[in-house]
Design a protein that fits this description.
Blueprint (H helix, E strand, L loop, with lengths): L2 E3 L8 E3 L10 E11 L1 H8 L15 E8 L11 E4 L2 E3 L19 E2 L11 E5 L4 E2 L6 H4 L5 H12 L4 E5 L3 H12 L3 E6 L4 H9 L4 E4 L8 E6 L6 H7 L1 E9 L20 E4 L5 H10 L9 E5 L3 H9 L6 E5 L1
Parallel strand pairs: 10-11, 10-13, 11-12, 13-14, 14-15, 16-17
Antiparallel strand pairs: 1-2, 3-4, 3-8, 3-17, 4-5, 5-9, 6-7
Helix pairs in contact: 3-4, 3-7
The protein binds zinc ion (2 copies).
Length: 327
């Protein structure tokens, strides 16, 4: 099969033709139609995340159809359209797995990190961690739902019932979550880089009540915030913009150092937190909700062979929503 492979971190992906993967017991073989490009992929390529399998096929927002089944894989029929997200395997036995927190599994394995992912024509996946894609979403538009959408959705849940919610960084994940938050009756305030007027306009077009610079003042106090950009300084910035009791959640897997701040801006039961990975329950809930909103995703499509260009464009914020590889 054709694939784009990471041989060593801090080097571009290389086109390669590894042997076709074979589904093991409980796994399905997926013919990949599209695969979303996530900021986590950048952190893996750039060496911010230090323990990927190598060589590695990145990609954890896979949309494709089942073309083979290993022994005891019975959940999907041949031809079914499935999505494969970041959470690829959990042990089912540790104290996290047995308490509804499999996202924190001590031995969890992740697609496009510990397991080869979707920057390839074929991928294998544990059928228990695959999900039917809602009808009505073309393959390109469905891919960003699988991480930008559903890990963002978990972050939104952790923020609680905040009415005035701040989004710091407005890209793939925020453009989906903005639609969900507005659907839930929340008021969205989008904070982008100083001068990013296109991003601010994009946020308003998706229902944000206000959009402006993350350096400037907020028009009102926030009841909660999600920090999507991997910029540690945004955590105290969001605290300063928040009302008492606000929860500030970082939605990314990696962030630059958070600068020191006075206790006074945390006081008043404000909380800082992070979201890690996803549970299967998050995926089921989110994929049920998305077509009801209905969430529409905006995608920039690249051919598989141009995966490095997609990653570079993401690094440089050259597109406004989500990048997707068309396999
Ligand atoms: Zn576990
Ligand atoms: Zn991701």
């Amino acid at each position: 099969m054709r694939a784009m492979v990471l041989e060593r971190q801090r080097q571009p992906l290389r086109p390669a033709e590894p042997p076709d993967p074979r589904p093991a017991s409980g796994q399905v073989l997926v013919s990949v139609a599209t695969c979303g490009v996530c900021r986590t992929d950048l952190h893996i390529v750039d060496g911010d995340l230090t323990e990927p399998k190598l060589p590695l096929v990145p990609g954890h927002q896979i949309v494709g159809s089942v073309v083979g089944r290993g022994e005891r894989a019975e959940r999907f029929a041949l031809g079914d359209r499935v999505g494969v997200p970041w959470l690829g395997w959990t042990c089912g036995e540790c104290r996290y797995c047995t308490s509804g927190r499999e996202n924190l599994c001590d031995r969890g394995r992740f697609t496009g990190y510990d397991i080869d992912g979707g920057y390839a024509e074929l991928a294998v996946a544990d059928e228990r961690f695959c999900f039917p894609i809602p009808a009505g979403y073309p393959d390109e538009q469905a891919a960003p739902l699988l991480c930008a959408g559903l890990i963002g959705y978990r972050a939104l849940r952790l923020v609680g019932d905040a009415e005035r919610i701040g989004f710091y960084g407005f890209g793939a994940s925020a453009h989906i979550l903005c639609q969900i938050a507005v659907h839930q009756g929340r008021r969205v305030f989008a904070f982008t880089r100083e001068g990013d007027e296109a991003g601010q306009e994009f946020a308003r077009s998706l229902g944000a009540e206000w959009a402006g610079s993350s350096d400037g003042p907020a028009p009102e106090q926030l009841d909660g915030a999600i920090v999507f950009a991997p910029v540690g300084a945004l955590m105290p910035a969001a605290l300063r913009a928040s009302a008492k009791g606000a929860r500030i959640i970082s939605a990314g897997i990696h962030m630059s150092e958070i600068p020191a701040f006075p206790y006074q801006i945390l006081w008043g039961e404000r909380m800082l937190g992070s979201v890690a990975n996803l549970t299967r329950r998050d995926a089921e809930e989110f994929l049920r909700l998305a077509p009801q909103v209905p969430v529409r995703t905006e995608v920039e499509v690249y051919p598989l062979a141009e995966a490095n260009r997609a990653l570079d464009d993401l690094r440089a914020s050259r597109f406004r929503a989500a990048a997707v590889l068309d396999i």
